[in-house]
Design goal:
Length: about 110
């Protein structure tokens, strides 16, 4: 159980911004070339912005989804093969939480 004095306040989540990103992402997710460029950026370990993650969350094309999941599996495999990256993983919890929250929001609607 998390002690009350160790809790992170919930006000760091900017719901209006997340809603805006997801709304904007709907049209951008239909541009296959743009989505593929985001996937290539992720495969090159360049990091993704919240807006780019929102676009990936809104992809519906099955072919692009297959490419996305294949890229994610390869990145995960490569990432976990390198022990020093596990330390870096611990340092990237907040962006991961933000991405998971975006995913949750997109399925909630």
């Amino acid at each position: 159980m998390i002690k009350e004095n160790e809790r992170t306040p919930d006000d760091f989540i900017d719901e209006p911004l997340i809603d805006q990103l997801l709304t904007t992402a709907e049209s951008a997710a239909k541009d296959a070339d743009y989505v593929r460029s985001i996937i290539e950026k992720a495969k090159a370990y360049q990091g993704l912005t919240a807006a780019e993650v929102a676009v990936l969350l809104k992809v519906t094309d099955q072919e692009i989804l297959a490419e996305l999941f294949a890229a994610a599996a390869q990145v995960k495999k490569d990432y976990l093969r390198q022990p020093y990256r596990l330390v870096r993983t611990a340092l990237s919890v907040q962006p991961l939480c933000q991405q998971l929250y975006l995913l949750w929001l997109s399925h909630r609607k």
